[in-house]
């Protein structure tokens, strides 16, 4: 136990001193290996195996595809379709923002990317209709978090790699929770808009308008059918699907909508390099850290404590969710999944929890992390789009945080919401 405490002290101490998380994890790992007198060559081997898995290619490919779709005009068409479906009811612009995020989430795979794509269009429109800017930013940030829950999802890919679970099953598992979360976000948006007297937009609902917007955006809504349909029909793997998504986004952006320029493509490549680089830097040290946890029997120690705390699977998941939400306030989401999955997943499985259910629960906890300071990525994106301080966005987003907590509780109480589609498809 002394070795474990010293290792965690080194890790937490480095983070508290402002050392970047990947380096902090490496420091804690080195201290742990030293304390148990294990050759340091094991660290290098573990770090190599961490970045070796072929499915990791899926992450930069989906990031690149989502960025191309954002700049290639697909986001605008998605918003137009959402606007035609909502009409000009109370708070309609806010509802359009959430629905637009729901649709774009099926293209991007990323929470911050979805916030940026839809927020760039909808936040100025909401401000023009005299919405409180902080409220508009909160809607975009909370709706954008759906980008990690509705497939394809980069966080699900990382969880699948770390936990050795089927990525297609995880993708299917996120559909119903994603729809439930979207519906609850829309209810929350409507209630706040009605209380504050926010009116509708300038686009009344007509079937003709729905048909026109859908036809104009057929290439945008065709992307998720191509990506997910190809995966579940067995035509290509998730990694191959990501490659197809890149080609599709390039062709549509360059030759159909003709809004994608060489400068925009270079910008997309820069964005992809920054995000993918951040992923790879943390994957290696975190893999070594996870193997060290197994060597030290840390999951068993934590499991004995938590299972002794409660014999109920539901309460256990609630306790784990609370831990994940708190750590998500301080850890970047990918780092959180890589570091905590080896610790928490064995505990959940020993209590009879399906690993797929745990994976979706962890993704939702990460979504809440997107919306909580000081590390909340979506908050920073929304703050940049609204030119407001992150403190104002953080306060405005609080009601939407509770919707995600409700989804966590529903999934913990009714796991069939997660397992129904994967079991239906794969048996």
In words, what does this structure look like?
By secondary structure, the chain is mostly helical. The protein has one domain (39-426). The protein has helices at 2-16, 21-35, 41-51, 58-71, 74-86, 92-108, 111-128, 133-144, 154-163, 167-173, 175-196, 207-216, 218-232, 238-256, 262-295, 298-309, 313-328, 333-350, 355-370, 377-386, 390-396, 398-413, 416-426. The radius of gyration is 21 Å and the shape is globular. The model has no long low-confidence stretch (mean pLDDT 85).
Q: Give the helix/strand class.
A: mainly alpha
User: In this structure, how is the largest beta sheet organized?
Assistant: none
Report the sheet-strand fraction: under 5%
Helix content: over 70%
Number of strands: 0
Count of all domains = 1
Mean pLDDT: 85
The global form is globular
Order of helices and strands: HHHHHHHHHHHHHHHHHHHHHHH
- How many angstroms does the end-to-end distance come to? 42 Å
Helical segment count: 23
- Computed CA radius of gyration, to the nearest angstrom: 21 Å
Unreliable stretches (pLDDT < 50, length at least 5) are: none
């Amino acid at each position: 136990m002394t070795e474990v405490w010293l290792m965690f002290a080194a890790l937490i101490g480095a983070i508290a001193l402002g050392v970047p998380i990947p380096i902090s994890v490496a420091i804690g790992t080195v201290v742990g290996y030293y304390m148990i007198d294990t050759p340091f060559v094991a660290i290098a081997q573990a770090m190599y195996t961490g970045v070796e898995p072929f499915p990791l290619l899926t992450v930069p490919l989906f990031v690149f595809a989502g960025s191309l779709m954002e700049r290639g005009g697909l986001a605008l068409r998605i918003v137009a379709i959402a606007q035609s479906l909502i009409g000009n009811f109370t708070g309609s612009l806010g509802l359009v923002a959430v629905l637009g995020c729901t649709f774009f989430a099926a293209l991007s795979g990323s929470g911050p990317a979805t916030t940026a794509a839809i927020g760039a269009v909808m936040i100025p429109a909401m401000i023009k209709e005299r919405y409180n800017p902080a409220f508009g930013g909160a809607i975009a940030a909370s709706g954008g978090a759906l980008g990690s829950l509705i497939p394809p999802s980069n966080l699900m890919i990382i969880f699948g790699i770390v936990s050795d679970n089927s990525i297609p099953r995880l993708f299917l598992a996120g559909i119903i929770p994603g729809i439930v979360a979207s519906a609850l976000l829309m209810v929350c948006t409507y209630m706040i808009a009605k209380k504050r007297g926010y009116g509708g937009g300038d686009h009344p609902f007509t079937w003709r308008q729905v048909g026109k917007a859908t036809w104009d955006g057929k290439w945008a809504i065709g992307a998720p059918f191509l990506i997910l349909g190809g995966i579940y029909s067995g035509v290509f793997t998730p990694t191959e699907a990501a490659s197809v998504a890149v080609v599709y986004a390039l062709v549509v952006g360059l030759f159909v909508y003709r809004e994608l320029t060489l400068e925009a493509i270079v910008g997309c490549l820069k964005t992809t390099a920054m995000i993918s680089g951040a992923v790879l830097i943390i994957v290696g040290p975190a893999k070594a850290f996870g193997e060290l946890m197994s060597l030290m029997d840390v999951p068993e120690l934590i499991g004995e404590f938590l299972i002794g705390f409660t014999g109920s699977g539901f309460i256990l998941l609630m306790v784990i969710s609370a831990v994940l939400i708190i750590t998500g306030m301080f850890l970047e989401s990918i780092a959180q999944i890589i570091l905590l999955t080896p610790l928490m997943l064995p505990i959940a499985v020993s209590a009879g929890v399906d690993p797929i259910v745990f994976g979706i629960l962890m993704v939702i906890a990460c979504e809440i992390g997107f919306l909580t300071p000081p590390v909340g990525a979506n908050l920073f994106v929304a703050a940049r789009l609204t030119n407001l301080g992150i403190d104002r966005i953080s306060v405005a987003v609080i009601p939407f945080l509770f919707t995600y907590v409700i989804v966590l509780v529903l999934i913990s109480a009714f796991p069939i919401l997660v397992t129904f589609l994967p079991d239906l498809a794969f048996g």
